Amino acid sequence: MDFSVDLLHTVQKDIESEILKLMKAVSVSSPSDINQSSLNKLNKAPLQNFLVSIVSLYDKNVNLCKSAAVKCDQLQTEQIELQKKLIDSQNNQIKSVQKTVQSEMKSWADVARKNATQSKVLTTKTVKEAVRAVNEEEERSRNLIIYGVSEGEEDDWNNIYSTEMLNEVVKSVHEATVADGSFPNADNVYRLGKKVPDKIRPIKVEFRSSSDVDAILKHAYKLKANSELKSVYLSPDRTKEQRSAHSKLVIQMKEMITRDSSKHYFIRDNKVNCVDKR
């Protein structure tokens, strides 16, 4: 007899049915009330029939239990085999990942060993240079360089600044460019470099905010319309490398103007741009 859940339910119902019949025959309301005294109420033939039926059901139940045990063993064996296959699959995946990781780690280690000394030196140096560059760039963004303002005969520029001449130059430049009625105070204003005969030194103006510098540079083109400041040229505070690159762009722009003067040329985003003249 092959075990199945349906067959189990069938045998259970058959047993319950026979017990109910026996309870009815001996006039009891519960299986626990069936005893020798109650069974004496039955004649020999009905009692024999009940015993034959119960023995038959018992035999079925025993065979069904044996079949269930075999089925459980079979399922357990299948489950174990399935678990073994799953474990083997997982082990293979782990080995594959380990092999890949070991290969990648070996490649990385080879590269790291080759560059260990150099990387160690470069890392410290690069970090320091990056920090210094950021700080310098932040400071320079608040500075404005003014070219083309003639100098007096005084050797001490502080004397010239004390007469507010230089401050008046900065104020005039601001009014000629931004012209919004406000004037940002400069923290410091001075000439760059030592005084040399027949050479005009640029003026460095240190503002408190880079936005003040941006506002002036944005409208620097307006200086050409001012008769007193048309020879003045404004520039951001560039590094030596930036000034060299900008000089090359200026030379390039002049060559382009010579070839075609019908357009308007200007330097922006580290390149020479041109538009049609209005």
Question: What are the key terms here?
Answer:
single chain; alpha+beta; four-stranded antiparallel sheet; about 10% strand
Report on this model:
- With 278 residues, this protein is an alpha+beta fold.
- It is built from 7 helices and 6 strands.
- Strands 2-3-1-4 form a 4-stranded antiparallel β-sheet.
Main sheet makeup: 4 strands, antiparallel
Strand content: 5-15%
Order of helices and strands: HHHEHHEEHEHEE
Structural class: alpha+beta
| Assembly status | single chain
Give the helices and strands, then pairings:
Blueprint: H1 5-26, H2 36-39, H3 44-140, E1 143-147, H4 157-162, H5 165-177, E2 186-191, E3 203-207, H6 210-218, E4 233-236, H7 240-259, E5 263-268, E6 271-276
Antiparallel strand pairs: 1-3, 1-4, 2-3, 5-6
Short description, anyone?
The chain is an alpha+beta fold. 62% of the residues lie in helices and 12% in strands.
